[in-house]
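Handout, section 4.2: multi-component inputs.
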Amino acid sequence: MLRQLLFRNQDRKQLIIAIVGSFLGITFLITSIHYLVKVNEFGCGNEILGPNTLIVQKKVNAGAIMGLAKTDFSESEIERIKKEKFISDVKPVISNNFDVSFQTDDPHVPYFRSDVFIQTVDPAFLDVKSDKWTWKEGDTVVPIILPRDFIVMLNTFMSASGIPQVSDELAKEIRFKFTIKNDDKKEFIAAKIIGFTNEVASILVPQSFMNYGNNNFALGADKKITQIMISGKESEFGLVEDYLTKHGLESKNSQMVVGKLKSIVSTLIVVILGISIIAVFVSCLVLIQYLQLLMSRNAYEVRTLIRIGYHPKLIIRAFFMYFMKIFGIIAVAGFLVFLVFKFFLDGILIAGGLSIGSSISLYGIVSLLFAYILFAFASYKTAQRGVMKEY
Amino acid sequence: MKIVLNKVMPFPLASIQHGETSIWGNEVVLEHGKKIMLNAASGKGKTTFTYTVTGLRTDYSGLISYDGRDVKSFSPDEWTDLRINKISTDFQDLQLFPTLTVKENLLLKNNLTNVYSESELRSMLDHLGIGDKWEQKCGLLSMGQQQRVAIIRALSQPFEWLIMDEPFSHLDEANTQLSLSLINQRANELNAGFVLTSLGDTHQFPYDYTLNL
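Output:
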């Protein structure tokens, strides 16, 4: 009956405008936050190299072929790159300066052996737990990260041998071993796969193993640094690309494309997010203003209720709960429409070859909760002020 | 509950000349359970008395106390408790909700106190001659009918004091007597007192004493 008294005479048109505005704001807010998070997560997780990481080398041109231009990086060049504000870190990629071969060492897998090229990168660039990525002299097993192409090659080989193909996880159980040697000595060390990468064409090993090999089995002069790893800052891949072009550097194309796409899409989503936040803020203000209007229209009712014995808290609660229900409906409707958007947008992205995570971003839900709590606080304070004015 | 007005002077009435026996500026005691008539001409502050003594106005000098406690010190919680259980008011401007029916107006109060059943409320309306108005909107009733609804609403709670501001101003003598007898009966049941402001008409009721403004 209290609700009937307080909410009977309303300007429905204004209420509907405020509700529609809040609904659109909330829907775009949760959608933009979800896709901002998902786009930034894209490529992470499956890839053992950290996000926004590029392996960069100098472009090989006619001058380099004739020996007139250097293809290696000096210390000062690396330092200069490191100083650029859009680059968060630069580290050399160190290669083996000794003979190394890689072979299967497992009775369940057909034997094969090949001379290989191994490299090491700074652990800061790798998305692996540090306790898995260690090796010291005397250890019998060295952890390795394989190019994913290796699995493709292994499976082709297994298929041709009539053996079932293996998954990433199963491949990690296969025993391998390295043979490292020079003219005088030879050593066998077991190897265990701990991950895969799409971005590096060589086998990655811990730095300590590389040092051990280079110190004990080196073939001659120190190997030059021909590749470096660059970690670009979030959303600044455009600047990284400009820098690489200007300085005659190049990177694997897919890395740049993903980085650039992520930068562009992130920027667009940030713009949408900004508009959504403003829309939510403005529409919440309209709703709060509507609450103020409703309270001023009901000033007589509020005053009289207090005079006949209604506690101000009871009246505040009536207004508060009414608006919380409205905003609750808006939030639920916004979330449901977001799910519909997500269903279609995910479909479009998958059809375009961009398989982003299907789970709902926690940040989107947190933002929804945050908007709800903020609105709850504002509406409670408005209701309290309006009722106590009549007390 | 003893109500004391100690040298109370509402600010808007401070410039008016008040008589020696006026409650304004003197000490007045409203003794528990007494039936009091407050007699005054228009503009002397009958409504102001109703509002100040029930804590709805605080623009006065002096002191109003309930059982020795300054009413200005009561918290919203305490006023809510007092307005539900100890002091009931029948306002001159009635303060009904015109968009609600008689039933809704009465239940809005009775739901807080649970004093009467719906059938008891209806029989009170019957007693005052407006039983057929149960489902009618208050805004559509005559002033006399609305006054009777307001009286029943004021009785729909436990109280120690009932403050009535010209409650019969739109009633004929027969309905006034019916209403006054209902009020007296309820006050007796509760061992409560009342203050009835009037323009001078005693309605032939044996008041315990009369106050003047």
